[in-house]
Amino acid sequence: MKKMKLAASLMCADILNLASELQKLEKNGIDYIHIDVMDGHFVPNLMLSPQLADQTRMVCNLPYDYHLMVDRPENIIPTLRLHPGDIVSIHAESTVHLQRAAAMIKASGATAAVALNPATPLEFLRDILPDIGMVLIMTVNPGFSGQKLVPQTLLKIERCRAMLDSLGFTDISIQTDGNCSFENIPKMLKAGADNFVVGSSSLFDPAYTIKTAAEKLRALDLSENI
Ligand code: DX5
Ligand code: ZN
User: Fold this and answer.
1) C-alpha 164 – ligand 2 centre gap (Å)
2) 177 included as an active-site residue
3) 107-160 per-position pLDDT tens digit
4) Where residue 224 falls among pLDDT bands split at 50, 70, 90?
5) Residue nearest atom 4 of ligand 1, based on CA coordinates
């Protein structure tokens, strides 16, 4: 079982106090900063520019996890200033040149990942597996925070883990994005996910501080109890 990784969704952070939020995330053992890049076409929303992400690097040393919710991601990838250890997710639905886009990410030294919307079949992954290090299973439809889990995505995580293992890609990790709450993460973990985009449903729930939410999230990690 892989150790649980937490990717903090920057769009859910306190945007007026971004520098101190980033410092708290780093101090509390968060693994990645999840940057949602939206173009208003692939999803009906606009969000976080790569230039803003570059600025935030001045106060944060964590690896960045870019989630590109844009049409033709191959046009955006060259504008990202990627560091070793970063991840870039591209949607299978967003380009007919998925392998080319994944190869561009790999060539820059980051890990390429492929994201699937809730209704996109796992079969879209089969021929890109040699080029990627992570699959992002969307557990809500992309574009907005604060949505409810699409229930059939839990079984999809399980089927994805089984497919990856049966084809020999045991090292490829599975990230889930959308409604990763304290209640849903144990179900996602059990299904085989190991990397969680934590946003308004958990890490940035106003009932907690970043410190108390991070502690509660870490306590859910099954790999620690083996
Ligand atoms: C979009 C985002 C959202 C969100 C996750 O890709 O990553 O899914 O910030 O946080 P929740 O669903 O908990 O608001
Ligand atoms: Zn995301």
Assistant:
1) 22
2) yes
3) 999 999 999 999 999 999 999 999 999 999 999 999 999 999 999 999 999 999
4) low
5) 145
- Check if 177 has its Cβ closer than 6 Å to any atom of ligand 1: yes
Contact indicator for 91, 117 with CB cutoff of 8 Å = yes
What span, in angstroms and rounded, lies between the C-alpha atoms of 104 and 109? Answer: 9
Asked if residue 178 has its Cβ within 6 Å of ligand 1, the reply is: yes
Single-letter amino acid, residue 99: Q
pLDDT digits (tens, 9 = 90+) for 1-60: 899 999 999 999 999 999 999 999 999 999 999 999 999 999 999 999 999 999 999 999
Q: Three-state DSSP class for 75?
A: helix
Q: Under 8 Å CB-to-CB from 153, ≥6 apart: which residues? A: 118, 137, 138, 139, 176
Cα end-to-end distance, the chain, whole Å: 9
Evaluate if residue 226 carries a pLDDT over 60. no
Which residue among the candidates 31, 36, 65, 221 is catalytic per the annotation?
36
Instruction: Look at residue 222 and tell me whether its pLDDT is greater than 90.
Output: no
- Centroid of ligand 1 to alpha carbon of 97 (angstroms): 26
Task: Say which of 39, 86, 177, 194 is annotated catalytic.
Answer: 177
Four-CA torsion 69, 71, 77, 81, nearest 10 degrees: -40
Q: Which amino acid is at 157?
A: I
DSSP category for residue 54: H
Q: What is the value of pTM for the model shown? A: 0.97
Report the run of H or E that residue 158 belongs to, with start and end.
helix 153-166
| Gap between the Cα atoms of 159 and 41, Å rounded | 30
